[in-house]
Structure formats: C-alpha cells, structure tokens
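Chapter review: from sequence to fold.
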Amino acid sequence: MANLHRIEPWESRPLGQRIRFRLEFAGLWLASRLIPLMPLAMLRALSRFVGRALFALDRRSRAVAMENLRLVYGNEKEERELRCIARASAAQFARTMLELFWARNFTEANYRDQMIMEGWEQARALNKKHNGGIFVCLHYGNFEWLSIAGSFERLPGCIVTQQFDNPLLGPVFDRLRSLSGHRIIQQQRSMLITLKHLKNGGNIGVLIDLQLHPKLPSVAVRCLDRWLPVTKLHSMLQKHTGLPIIPIESVPLPDGRYRTIAHDPIYFPPEATEREIAQKCWDFFEPQVRRQPEAWLWAYKHWRFVPKNADIAYPSYAVQRDRFDNMLEGAVADMAPDGEDAA
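The token string follows.
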C-alpha cells in the first residue's frame, strides 16, 4: 500500500535503502513473471498459506486487526471468532494481490469464468445516458479484479493511485491495473484530471474506505460507529458534474469465484454536501462489511484520529488532532437537522 507522506527523491535516499528497493523490485518482477504460469487452484492454495504466514509472523498488523475487530464487535463475537476473521482477512488480501499478478491471463473471452457479473448492462446504459460515470468501492473482496472486470465490461476509466515509498514498484502495479484498458493517474492534481476526464464522457473509480490525514482533501464520515477522515474526491466530482454515483463490489463466493456487482446508482440533490455524499456512499457498503467481515481489510489503521470528546472507544493507535476536531464540527452541523449526536 502507498504511503501518504512526501516521497523523497531517489538520489537523496541512503544507499542501503536504494539497495533494498532494488531487491524489492527484483522480487516483484520475478513474481509478475512466475505467478501467471501457475494454475489458479494452486495460486489460491498459496494465497491461503501466505495469508496465514503473514498473520502469524506480522505481529503489528495482527494486533491492529484484532484491536479493530474487538472495538467493532465488542461482546457480539468471541475472541476465537474474531481471530478467525482477522486470519481470513489477511488471506483474502494476500489472495487479491497474488491474483492481480495472475490477471495477465484474463481476456475478454475468459474473465467471466471467474466472476459472476451482475448489473453491468445497467451501468453501461447509465454511462451512455449521463455521458460519464463515477464508480466507488472498498478494499473489499478482490477489488483489483473488480476494476479489471469493469474495463472488460466496456467501462474503462481513470484509476487514481498513490505513490509507493519505493518508486520502482509503482510502474509494475500500474501495468497490471491498466491491462484491460484503464488509464492510471497519480494523486497529484487528480481532481483536475479526473474532472476533465468525466466531462469528456469518461469514468472514474474511487476507493473510498481508507483514511486520509485531515490536512488533505477529506471529509469526516462515521464508519462502523467511529469517525474517520476519508477522501472527498468522489464527492467533489459529483458536486461538479451532477452525475449519480454507482457502487461496485466484488463478493467472494464459496466456490472461489466472485460476484462482481454494479449496483443501482445513488442520486444526490444539488444541495447535498460533500460530507453527506461521502457518508451515503459508505453507508451503502457497511451492511456488506458486517455480513462478510473477513473480506475487508482489518489490518489497516482505519481510525487513526480520535475526537477530543469521543464517547466511544477508539484504537490505541489513534491520536487527537485539532484539524480533525475542526472537521468534525462541520460534520456535526451537517447532522444536526436529523437530530443525530456526532460525539
């Protein structure tokens, strides 16, 4: 995953770090050549092994996942069950990354062998009607194949990516993510580029569930009963274009395939605020996260910022920031007409 901090120029990095980066690139390049040669059943067995190994060996990520799950589920689930969810979540993430490399085997003729496509004909009709489309999803299920399938469904678009701390890795992932026709753009100036792309009849896909620092373009939403600042790119684009937002998701199935769904569009009145738009998008997905929690990315630090006067527990990794509290004041004002308490 990409870091949000400023990326240092290559020449200014320590020699040891540059050597490590080159070794990481070599390993990634080798994986990109070998994984597509593997049978998919073997790859999935490997992903289960890798996920379990990561869960066992990466104590820091395991601790984050377990703390997140305990906070969300409280006494609803036993510790053993929470541990199973966290382990399965690690395996799903490993599977998603390995299957991204395997996706070089996909063609327009065979991708439906692994994905049950639902709702995409309606999405194409809406795209034609509105001359553009805003698609949103979570880091849930196989979000990488979800994107690739959307392009095969004749809805190619822009994918906004963040830079890796290791600059050698980005181009490898960009080539994989664009193999079915997507255009990859960097986060810098993404608003201007994506807005122009939409107004020219294109599509944009946005992952909406990872938190941003409050100093970046973000809005506060309630996610599983706790506040976090998330990207407002999709909200800003909706406000500028008036386009509906189409939620898409990739739900893992017991037989190894995915239900790859383009849902009914979400429409917003002109007076809807950016925060209200972002909140409604998250609210659409939250029930599925609760139904099948093992498919979501629990090892991520989703709640890095805690409100000053929070009346609900936040993770131990959360910190208090004035910028976040100021952001929450606006969120409270948004919710006041509904009589909700945002404390």
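Two observations follow directly from the output. The longest strand covers residues 245-252. Residues 210 and 308 are 21 Å apart (CA to CA).
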